[in-house]
Amino acid sequence: MFPEQKLGYTYEEYKVTADWLLANTEHRPLIAIICGSGLGGLAEILKDQKVFSYSDIPNFPQSTVHGHAGRLVFGTLKGKSCVCMQGRFHLYEGYPIWKVTFPIRIFRLLGVETTIVTNAAGGLNEDYKVGDIMLIKDHLNMPGFAGNNPLVGPNDERFGLRFPCMSDAYDSDLRKLAKTVARDLGYSEFLKEGVYCVLGGPSFETIAECSMLKRLGADAVGMSTVHEVIVARHCGMRVFGLSLITNKAVMDYNSESKANHEEVLQTGRERASQLEKMISRLIEGIEPNNNNVC
Ligand SMILES: O=P(O)(O)O[C@@H]1C[C@H](O)[C@@H](CO)O1
Ligand SMILES: Nc1nc2[nH]cnc2c(=O)[nH]1
């Protein structure tokens, strides 16, 4: 039925990694955080850290992108046990999509209930400024339109349903909580809410591509996150996502500006402390749900 190429890890392979981690740390995280480009400093908010290099974890892919350190950091925040990926995997690194999303099922097997995804993205919405934080309310999955979806291949019911719903992918209660947190911190001025569009990368968009994406309803464009969200929702985790608008997508043929990775990392450094505060407060407000997945 499916071609003979490998289409993913087996349940047993996921278990090997999860069991290795459980044997090597006493942390039992309920919340996972995935750090976007240049946002790895978010891991520093965790106390009582236990850190693993991806290269030391069985089956774990390696980070190859500048701004993605390649470390899995366990720790606590306000007494809550968390795990943080300092570095994620992208399609453009050459990984098949099931490797890109490998850590998500590991999180689920560790007992994680809520996944927080962050990324750096280009702003398509003309009201957005560099440095804005966009709560992700929905996504456009461009690789998925072409059949590159992380759930392609045999479905393992131990993780989730063959046909998972995605109309409620980004938890509305967590978005409400984030808005309250942002207001209390005085961040409302640079808080936005919108639709994130994933492309394969690594080239940034042409002007025509940006105008097309904007017309399709995207507010921000990037190269990650959506694959992780699909797998997280498939296995029943709650998802909260935010994009840091690190650059404005170029939409004018007369513009001199050019998207570049250094600007992306620089904007991350500039907003790091506010993002750390916002995510700390958000985590403080997340209630455990006794591992009842949703
Ligand atoms: O991992 P994220 O999505 O934050 O990284 C974005 C997309 C590319 O990897 C990189 C481009 O600068 O930033
Ligand atoms: N595709 C894409 N990814 C980004 N990541 C950060 N900025 C951008 C951008 O402008 N386009």
From TrEMBL:
GO cellular component: cytoplasm
GO terms for MF: purine-nucleoside phosphorylase activity
Enzyme Commission (EC) number: 2.4.2.1
Boundaries of every Nucleoside phosphorylase domain copy: 31-284
Record Gene3D superfamilies: Nucleoside phosphorylase domain
Catalysed reaction equations from the record: guanosine + phosphate = alpha-D-ribose 1-phosphate + guanine; 2'-deoxyinosine + phosphate = 2-deoxy-alpha-D-ribose 1-phosphate + hypoxanthine; 2'-deoxyguanosine + phosphate = 2-deoxy-alpha-D-ribose 1-phosphate + guanine; inosine + phosphate = alpha-D-ribose 1-phosphate + hypoxanthine
SUPFAM superfamilies: Purine and uridine phosphorylases
UniProt enzyme class: transferase
Residues the record lists as binding phosphate: S37, H68, R88, F89, H90, A120, S224
Annotated keywords: Glycosyltransferase, Purine salvage, Transferase
Residues given in the record as a purine D-ribonucleoside binding sites: E205, N247
Gene Ontology annotations of biological process type: purine ribonucleoside salvage
UniProt pathway annotation: Purine metabolism; purine nucleoside salvage
Family: Belongs to the PNP/MTAP phosphorylase family.
Described function: The purine nucleoside phosphorylases catalyze the phosphorolytic breakdown of the N-glycosidic bond in the beta-(deoxy)ribonucleoside molecules, with the formation of the corresponding free purine bases and pentose-1-phosphate. Catalyzes the phosphorolytic breakdown of the N-glycosidic bond in the beta-(deoxy)ribonucleoside molecules, with the formation of the corresponding free purine bases and pentose-1-phosphate. Preferentially acts on 6-oxopurine nucleosides including inosine and guanosine.
Protein name per its UniProtKB record: Purine nucleoside phosphorylase
